[in-house]
Structure formats: structure tokens, C-alpha cells
Amino acid sequence: MLSTLQPPRSLTLLPFRRLHGSKTIASLASSSPTLDASSVSPPQSQILTTRRSLLSGETTASEIAKSYLSRIRLTEPQLKCFLHVSENVLKEAQEIDQRISRGEEVGPLAGVVIGVKDNICTEGMPSTAASRILEHYRPPFDATAVKKIKEMGGIVVGKTNMDEFGMGSTTEASAFQVTANPWDLTRVPGGSSGGSAAAVAAKQCMVSLGSDTGGSVRQPASFCGVVGLKPTYGRVSRFGLMAYASSLDVIGCFGSTVADAGMLLHAVSGYDRFDSTSSKQDVPEFESQFLSMDSFESKPLKGLRVGLIRETLEEGVDSGVRSATQEAASHLEALGCLVTEVSLPSFSLGLPAYYVIASSESSSNLSRYDGVRYGNQVMADELNKLYDCSRGQGFGGEVKMRILMGTYALSAGYYDAYYKRAQQVRTLIRKDFKAALDHNDILISPAAPSAAYKIGEKKDDPLAMYAGDIMTVNVNLAGLPAIVRRSINQTN
Amino acid sequence: MATRALLAVLSASPPRMIRIKVSTFPSSSSSSSIKFQRHITIARSFSSDTNPSVLQPPDVSRLAETARISLTPSEIEECGAKIRQVIDWFGQLQQVDVSSVEPAIRAEMEGGNLREDAPETFENRESIRASIPSFDEVYLKVPKVLNKE
């Protein structure tokens, strides 16, 4: 729909190694992940391409897996997207090939190479949420989303880097490594799902799972130039997602195209008896609704009412972001949409309300990391000291800070002034969104007030870092779905 | 599930052209504009259920003890300054009139999805046991438990 690309810089230094005789890989080997909408017919999708080429015998899952592993080996020293790369990738690919050669059915994600954020549990594979307190932890079960992916033939290639427990917007708050933005290695990939976004942007995997508590899928998708999809709260089971702020957390999807992100969402959605907040509503089938570009009229979105959120384009937002968003709105008009400005009066209150709620819930959720049942333990001569030291040495600075802020906001005498009040503000935000959506089919806004900034630029200034979340947190407070994709190319 | 979606269009300008406004932050204004300012004073007007004299700045050592996190003296100093800065900024919420607004615990969602409260056996018990740092026969091993005097 809207296509803009930051000009490739460092990525051109990271060539994709072509695999002989593999059309699938050749299609991935384009010099940049630019999406040329005019040539897309039917929808560009690595998931669909993989399925077609496997079933037609053009290539094998093993060949595809090898090429991705090779790409990871080549690019990881510079990018550091992965905290762990699976040892079973080739074995799983070979099993798929054997099934195909025996004429057996394979799942819709067969051979699809998928990255999984490190706060989503994978059985027998390290899952640390990028925290020292869970270093070397291997969960005894798969998260429901991961289980579904595996059942459909998807190959989990590894665990992606992130801000510790999802607390951050740059992936610099990982206890283990800093991920670089594939487009410019001196810049952050965004966060907290920075590893998942950068891995898709750098073609280290086809699609990936992330999590989004206040923008952790959408903002890194923006910084890395990929599609990021945050589902409605409850659409995807949170079972196996390490809880940060339970009333806001969702598992989300990254892909190079809207079609890929949509198909991954379809794969992981649905009610799960292990998550009472998951929805029992039917999961719509997206793939059959894809239309060929050739079938479009000149105004394919005729009559769609689009609300441009006024507050997202005011003072404090980078001029380049403003103009790109306005160009996107004009483009939508050209496609037949009726674009009007809408106001969300409570918009600016969402940020402090979000940080009160997220910190409060995290102080409760992270109390489970006590060094007794799993994770790193610092032995002491007395139980409370064991807790204190295990947590003190296991958590990073940002995590400690948020736990302490949450502890403060939930303290007796402060609860009404902070936590309860933030929840009342959440009600106001929900009402504003509802009013805006009563008159519009969709709303549009930038995903962040700026494009990717330099590594280290905001690391020691929490308020400057939090300010970057202004565009995304309200959506989590309202529980709404949102998708991020590149806007119209204004750079070339 | 809602059929409507919020479409966020991401920024398009190349990183090198970006000027980051690090010294800005949303104001406590009830107006809709994103005005950015760093220091926000704690509210003067409180709702009836909040007594302003009770809202003392955070005592980081005490909070750390409550949250069971050991902090070094330098961490207390560094972390404390940042926490006070953020808590100050939280203060803008006090200026919002929420007198007749019900709090929302989470997004609107359907009810009745609780499963039956019945025990089930988890098969992969050995893997759970393998994750326990100190284990002795069927017991988790911890140091002695002492009450504070």
C-alpha cells in the first residue's frame, strides 16, 4: 500500500549468498528488501514462495535452511540479532524434505525459517528474555505460539535479542549484546523486539515473533523498515510469553511484507485454554482474501474512512516523519480513501499512564525471579539475602529501576495517586479511540517521533528514551490492533 | 475481535537527516498537543482520595528492600536520581480530572474463558527439576529462614 525505503547503506556490505539452483533463495537475494508495490502480483510473500517451491520440487527445505544459516554466520558478527541459534535447523528441514518426498502432507509453514524473541519460551532451547537472571535457562515447554508454529512445519532458527524483559526501546538494555540496525550499523534497531526486526530486515530469517507491551513490535519495525503487526489484546495466547505487564502484553509478528506478517498472525492466533485472556472469537483466514494487484481498480480503497491522528503530527515530531505521514495520507486519498483529521484529547496522558501501569505490573510479575526454582542463584547464608543478591546481580539497571518505580506506585498511600489514576486515564484513552473509530474505519499515525538514532544516544536518559514511545503506548492501553509498514518512498 | 485496525505509518526519512529532540517530553497539559518539557511539578490539585502531603519522594533503599533487590551504594545514587526524575514526571497525572471515571484494569475482552480448576499432570517434570539451582531429593534447597529482629 505505502512503500518507502531508507536508502540501503550498511546492508549492501552484507550480501546474501546465493544458492545455486534455488529460485526461492534467488528471490530473497535482491540487493535490498525494497518492496516495489507495482510489481507485486500476487502478494509478495516468502511464506507462499517457500510453500510453492517446496511442493513443486524447485528447491528443498534443507537448501533453504542452509542458505539462512550461512547468511546468519556471515552477518551475525556485525548485527548480533541472535542470542541463540538452534542446532536442529537442518535436522528439522530434512524431516520436512523426507515427508515431501514420501508424498505426505506438510503444514502451511513447512520450511519457513522463523526467529523467536527470547522472552517467548521454546522447549529445550535457551529462553532468557536477555536477562542474566535467566542465563542458560531452558524452559520445559513451548509457548502456545511456538507450539503452533512447529505444528505447522515452521522451523525456529533461533532466539532473538531484546531489551531485558522487554524494558527498553533500543535493544541496548540486553544483558548480553547490542544489536545493530542493518541499514546503518551505528544506529539502534529499536526495541524491545530489536533482534526480531533486524533479523527480518537483514534476511536472517523469513519472519519472526516479537512481543509488544508499549510499541515493542511497531517501533523496531519502523526503525528497521519491515512490517510489524501488533494484534488485538487476546488474539494470540500469552502462554509461554514471559510476563512484563500482563494487561498490555501481546505477541506480535514481523515480516518483509504485509502478507507474511498476516499469515504468521493467522498461524499463532486463537483461543488457548492456558490463557484465560485469549479470545474465543473465530480467527479469520487472511490468505484467501489476498487480491492480485491486477484485479485492482484505480481507486481500490474507495470509501474507506481514514482518520489521521492530529496529536501525532504536532510539536516534538521530526519534520521528516511529519511529511512522510502526510504524504502517506495523500497517497491513501489517491487510492480512494476519505482522509480526515481526528483528535484524541487524552493522547499525551497515555505515556505517563503507560509507564505507571507497566512498571507496577512488572514489579509484581518479576517477583517470580527469586533464584530458587529456576535461573541464576546467588547462594547466601539466609533466605532473604539469597533473594536480594540473586535479583540484585541478575537484573540489569533498567529492570531494577522499573521494578522499584512500580513498587513505589503500588505502595500503600500511593496506589490511588498513581496506579488507580493511571487506570482511570486508560478509560479516557479507550473512550477517545472509540469515538475516533465510530467515525473512521482505520486511524493512521507515525510509529515513532523520529527514525533510528545513534547507539548510545539516549542510553542514560530515561525520560528521553520514554518520549520515543509516545506514538505507540496508547494503542496498548486501548488493546487495539495496529500495523506498521514503510510509507511512500520520499528519499529517492 | 475488532475488525477495525489502527494503521501506523512509519517514518520515512533517512536516519542521517534526523534531529533527535532529547530534551523534550510531553507536558501535563490537558490540551491535546504534544508539547514537550522536561520538568513537571507534582500537581497542586488532588482528587479527594489523595492527600498531597502523603506523596513523599521515593526512598530508594527502602523500595529496594521491599522489592528484594540488593543495590550497591553507587546504584542507589544513580538509580535514585533517575527514579525521582520519572516519579516527578508521573506527577502530571494528578492534574487530570478523573473524579467520575471508572478505572480500566485491561482492554475490553470477553469473559467466561476460565478453564475448570482441576489439577493436571505435567509430563516433562524432569526438565523442570533440571532447572532448579539447588535440589535435594524431592525438595527445593534454600538457606535457613530467619525472621528479622
CATH architecture of the largest domain in chain A: Alpha-Beta Complex
Spatial order of strands in the largest sheet of chain B: 2-3
The profile of the biggest β sheet of chain A is:
7 strands, mixed
The fraction of residues in strands of chain A falls at: 5-15%
* Spatial extent as radius of gyration of chain B: 24 Å
* Integer-rounded radius of gyration of chain A: 22 Å
How many individual domains of chain A?
Answer: 3
SS-derived structural category of chain A: alpha/beta
Name the chain pair whose interface involves the most residues: A-B, 154 and 96 residues
Taking the alpha carbons of the first and last residues of chain A, their distance comes to 18 Å
In terms of quaternary structure, the protein is heterodimer
Mean pLDDT of chain A: 90
The mean pLDDT of chain B is 70
Q: Please mark out the parts of chain B with pLDDT under 50 across 5 or more consecutive residues, or reply none.
A: 1-5, 7-53
